[in-house]
Amino acid sequence: MSRRGEPKKSRLEDDLFDPDKDMEKEIEGLPSRNELVVATVRDVTGHGAYVSLDEFDDRRAYVHISELSRTWVKNIRVHVREGQRIVAKVLRVDIRKNQIDLSIKRVPEQMKKLKLLESKRAQTANTLFKMIVDKMPAEERKNAVEIRDILVTHHDLLYYGLEFASQASQKDLTNIGIDEKWAKVIRKIAHDNIIPATVEIKGTVEITIPGGNGVHILKEALILGRDNIKEKNTEIKIYTEGSPRYAIEVTSEDYKLAEKALENALERIEDIVEDNQGSFSFTRKK
């Protein structure tokens, strides 16, 4: 069958997207091809930028001018500058030439934000864990790697393990295998230094209740809906956007808990409205 009509891939595309090459053996201390990395720009030249890889002992890497932007690069310093932190995709790692090539333009904006957040959390976690180790008696410090591994095993990342510890009881920590002496210190430092991540769901209810007593019934419905919370560490705020529209904001540490709290609040409000022959609708904000 003729393949004349198919667009030809460049050698670069063949190299980047060859699935067999994605199975290349990872080299200790170096990033893998197609991995996202955080780097600091060290030197900008007319043909590209030299960077140091923040997560790999500041190892040197290079971004060619053609990999800076999807648009034409007239002035390279508009796109990168010395001291700037960037997120890039690893194009190739050549051990023989001691060369790592990166691309900035191949990283979607949302992935850049997520990678920077991940990097910042990793730095925070490492700093906090060092504080924990320094607080332990000298004879206990030999167990630091084991304790760190327990937190990572149960929560994927050290930061998430410490985030869990910030709200956990000492028993919660000993239940996953952490010694009591370590659990006490971990819990204290994590609680003092980590603010748990929160999720927020917003929407608007539109309510009308007929009759002279409608305003009082509506107020009661909103209050009872707001206070109908059974979920831990969850809060609901309700305020007017101009009658008959009222904003609802649910804040929680867990998306499922926030959804459940919102559902319970809306059910309570709707029951009261319908019992009084009123109309009710809810619109979620994106």
Outline of this structure?
The chain is α+β, with helices and mostly antiparallel strands and 286 residues long. The protein has eight helices and nine strands. It folds into three domains: 11-107, OB fold (Dihydrolipoamide Acetyltransferase, E2P), CATH 2.40.50.140; 111-193, DNA polymerase, domain 1; 199-284, EIF_2_alpha (Alpha-Beta Plaits, 2-Layer Sandwich).
Helix proportion: 25-40%
- Put simply, the count of helices is 8
Number of DSSP E strands: 9
Can you say what the CATH homologous superfamily of the largest domain is? Nucleic acid-binding proteins
Ranges with pLDDT <50 over ≥5 residues? 1-25
| CATH architecture verdict of the largest domain | Beta Barrel
Estimate the mean pLDDT confidence: 88
* Order of neighbouring strands in the sheet with most strands: 1-2-3-5-4
| Count of the separate structural domains | 3
What does the overall shape look like? Answer: flat
CATH class of the largest domain: Mainly Beta
**Biggest sheet character:** 5 strands, mixed, barrel
Sheet-strand content, in percent, reads 15-25%
Termini Cα gap = 48 Å
* CATH topology call of the largest domain: OB fold (Dihydrolipoamide Acetyltransferase, E2P)
Could you spell the SSE succession in H and E letters? HEEEEEHHHHHEHEEHE
